[in-house]
Design brief:
This protein has helices at about 10, 75-85, 100-120, 135-145, 160-165, 170-180, 185-190, 220-230, 255-265, and strands at about 5, 20-30, 30-40, 50-55, 90, 120-130, 150-155, 205-210, 235-240. It is of the alpha/beta class and about 270 residues long.
């Protein structure tokens, strides 16, 4: 299938039904544009509302719309099966070291508003999903915007940023994103962390997927989150993949389980 690269002007000039099935678009956001890689389901015409997956990339990705884990070969089966079920997928490029900070949340707000204005998106079926930094991003966005997110799929995300920082992971990157070290900006680190004030996720079920041999973002992030959300009794689930490290292969072989999870949570309460 050919890939169509659209300018913002040409995108705005088109009716929703004319959008390409795959393509780089851009959402206006003040003086900048937020890059998005858009994948529409086969046969999309805009006649009925469709569920939307907002996909967030890992650290080091996100310099362009195409620079996203979502387009990696490991996600090919998931992309196909999601499309067959009618899902729109949109990879939002928030920046390579943003960790869903306030800047990234505002970029995501702009991307979501733009997609909802130009596509027939079911507003009750907006899901967030991400890998690595993007897994934490999917959680943080849902924590701050629970009324807009029906469910989350977290692949290998950081869930307690203060502990993550103290353990020596990505200190410079986190300090740059959060406006200082954990000692200078502890409130921000906590506000970003899904395990802090988890009741903010009480209406947002989370599918937590992590490799038990992950040394980049260790699996304790997953188990801490599971312990935090279990008391909410909101339909969250934990999948620890035996023998697996920090890799895009985390999605392979469990595509149906992921989509079944989303289908079990078909709308906001």
């Amino acid at each position: 299938m050919p890939i169509h690269i659209l300018t913002l002007a040409s995108f705005l000039a088109q009716p929703a039904a004319a959008l390409p099935a795959n393509g780089a678009i851009a959402a206006p956001h003040g003086e900048e544009q937020v890059p998005i890689w858009l994948i529409l389901p086969p046969g999309y015409t805009g006649d009925i509302p469709r569920p939307l997956i907002l996909f967030f990339h890992g650290r080091g990705y996100g310099t362009t719309a195409a620079n996203t884990n979502m387009l990696k070969d490991e996600f090919s089966t998931f992309r196909r099966k999601a499309g067959d079920l009618g899902y729109i997928m949109a990879g939002v490029a928030t920046g390579p070291n943003t960790w869903m900070n306030e800047i990234a949340r505002k970029r995501t707000d702009a991307a979501l508003a733009y997609l909802q204005a130009n596509l027939n998106v079911n507003p009750d079926r907006v899901y967030t999903m991400g890998v690595s930094m993007g897994g934490g991003a999917a959680l943080t966005f849902a924590k701050h915007r629970p009324a807009q997110v029906a469910a989350v799929v977290d692949f290998m995300g950081a869930t307690d940023f203060a502990r993550f920082y103290h353990a020596g992971f990505y200190n410079e990157s986190l300090a740059g994103a959060f406006g200082g070290t954990v000692y200078d900006a502890r409130a921000t680190y906590d506000a970003q962390s899904a395990v802090v004030d988890p009741e903010m996720l009480k209406t947002v079920p989370v599918l937590i997927v992590h490799g038990d041999q992950d040394t980049v973002i260790p699996a304790w992030n997953a188990t801490l989150l599971w312990e935090a959300v279990q008391p909410l009794n909101n339909g969250s689930e934990l999948v620890l993949r035996a023998g697996m490290g920090h890799t895009n292969e985390i999605v392979m072989g469990i595509e149906d389980r992921i989509l079944n999870f989303l289908e079990k949570h078909p709308g906001l309460p």
